[in-house]
Design a protein that fits this description.
Elements: H1 4-18, E1 21-27, E2 30-34, H2 66-70, H3 77-83, H4 87-96, H5 135-146
Antiparallel strand pairs: 1-2
Length: about 150
């Protein structure tokens, strides 16, 4: 049996994770990304979901782009699917990670995709298709990465 304390903490953490989701942040005809948020509840303006800034300690994002961080499995995936407009739209947005030439600064060995197989924030992304009912894409994308 799960205690009330555990459930309360879980709900608090899930709510905090949703706190950084900005449905107005857009890139590549898709909207809704993780964006820095200030204490006054406003989001940082001008965030490009395809850019991490300098990708270093002092920057808003370390190691990955907002697009990649939006699909980290530590988020509430079912809520992300809902916020994206349902499973079909979420799958389309997730699949953009793997489309060639979407990120001008992307890894040339992987056709400049947003997905970066050499960086931890992207490691679990191929498996997230399962949450949207597309196990076939989970298998396809994970096999592509393993080659």
């Amino acid at each position: 049996m799960v205690s009330v304390t555990v459930l309360t903490r879980t709900n608090i953490l899930l709510g905090a994770g949703r706190n950084h989701y900005d449905s107005y942040s857009t890139a590549l005809n898709s909207s809704g990304f993780v964006v820095p948020r200030f204490a006054n509840s406003s989001f940082e303006a001008g965030q490009d979901p395809l850019s991490c800034g300098g990708c270093y300690w002092g920057d808003d994002y370390y190691e990955a782009t907002p697009w990649e961080y939006t699909f980290n499995p530590h988020h509430d995936i079912q809520e992300l699917i809902t916020l994206s407009g349902g499973a079909e739209k979420w799958i389309e947005k997730l699949d953009m990670l793997f489309q060639p030439n979407m990120n001008p600064n992307g890894n040339p060995a992987f056709n400049k995709t947003i997905f970066d197989p050499g960086n931890e924030p992207s490691f679990a992304s191929p498996y997230l298709f399962n949450f949207g009912g597309r196990q076939d894409l989970a298998v396809l994308r994970s096999r592509d990465v393993a080659r």
